[in-house]
Specification:
Helix content: over 70%
Largest sheet: 2 strands, antiparallel
Structural class: mainly alpha
Strand content: 5-15%
Strand order of the largest sheet: 1-2
Number of helices: 6
Radius of gyration: 19 Å
Number of strands: 2
Shape: elongated
Distance between the termini: 27 Å
Order of helices and strands: HHEEHHHH
């Protein structure tokens, strides 16, 4: 969860900075003297950040699931050993990223809406980055 959330917030803030500086006429507006993303801009940044975070963190989720479903109580494998085992048995595409497409279909709209609500609530309550 920590790598996923960290990557998602970092990617969102990086994309937001890029959009505000380069696409300010298209995806930004002035509110209370501050340049903020419009809803389409926030949805775009949120969706892309969810996609990037999911792609980065998904192999760790696969490893976690494998470790939880493991029945080898006498010989427990650690995180790194499980990662190597999945890679050797099934490879990257069919091992570490098996099922990622369905997860992306679910996560991208969810994170896009979450970050849009996050931005709108920050604006509503007057919370700015400058504080």
């Amino acid at each position: 969860m920590i790598p996923y959330a960290g990557v998602a917030f970092y990617t969102y803030e990086a994309l937001k900075a890029i959009f505000l500086s380069r696409f300010d006429k298209l995806l930004a507006t002035q509110k209370n003297g501050e340049l903020v993303l419009t809803v389409p801009g926030s949805l775009t940044c949120g969706g892309v950040s969810g996609l990037v975070a999911q792609i980065c963190a998904y192999p760790l989720d696969v490893v976690r699931r494998r470790m939880q479903l493991s029945t080898k109580a006498s010989n427990p494998a650690g995180c790194f050993q499980t990662l190597v085992q999945v890679y050797r048995q099934d490879g990257i595409r069919f091992g570490l990223y098996r099922g990622v497409s369905l997860n992306v279909i679910r996560v991208v709209p969810q994170v896009a809406v979450s970050f849009t609500v996050y931005e709108n609530m920050k604006q509503y309550f007057g919370i700015s980055k400058a504080r």
